[in-house]
Amino acid sequence: MLKVGFIGHSLGVHEKRFLRGFDSLGIPAIFYSFSELLESPNLLRHHYELGKFNILMGGPLTHYEQLTKALQDVPFIAISYAYDVLYTAKDNAEVQRGIRKLLKNADGVLVDCDAVKTAIKEMAGDQVKVHSMVWGLEKCSSNHKLRAELKSLLLQEKERGSKIVVCVRNFTAVHGCEVVLRAFHLALAKNPKMHLVLTGAGELSEQMYSLAEEFDIMHKVSFIGNIEEPLLVPLLECCDVYMSSSLVDGTSISLLQALEAGLPVILSAVGGNVEWVNRITGGYLFDCGDVNGAAEQLLLCSESNDCYRYDRRVVMSEYADWSENMRKFVQFCDDLKLSKKSFK
Length: 344
Fold this sequence. Notes:
alpha/beta; Rossmann fold; 6-stranded parallel β-sheet
């Protein structure tokens, strides 16, 4: 039976989803943080001898040194988080060499879109075994509700005829959040019947607040701070348009949730975003970092009859069913597990 050792920076949203996915299939999985392995160099060997796992996997690939050390003789699957290959390694020769070494020693690699797969092949060649799998949506019911005052605000804006535009990315340089705010400001001058909801926080928080004040649009923007993942669904249900200007993306979970909710989506033309817009109706692209282009797409979407719910059940079932995707990934793991037997 497959037993998984999962290595990562921390037990975050994505890592928890993988562990839940394995658990749902009756597969034991244990998480190891990089800091934990640094403090206990022999922990993996000890746990392997105790039979706690028979396959290792982990990422992001930017932690190539720690991951390479963990390889040993147990089957190992390197997991790309998209930004590691498409952003961090893009113009960094040292990181590219480190990732290339890791990939050549790994037994397989997991990617979430064709853009990452192409980058992996360019780095490591065709010999690396790649499994492509959208980090899909978990099927679970939720009774979570938005704060009453936020829901009331959004409903009031809708009653005024405003289209609610939402961006749920953090205020960091890599997420390009400033592009969304600047584009909204430009579009608002031509179509004042819009309201922007920004979630998240980060290093650019003060800059974002100052920019909204400078544009004199604070009354048109709701900064609602970090929002727990279960609350994204009810938030999206209150919105009309999803927008993201990230500098890099594989397939973000928030995008999948917006697609599931049927919203039109306006995205920077990077990574997996392009692939998703090609799969669906109601998708708009703009060049990465292009404020004017983003504003044009926002106007095109908000002024058309395009702000309604799309039925995307077929495409979501085909690509973004987390349970089915995990079953296929487990088969990939089982096949690799047969290639190695034990630690040296």
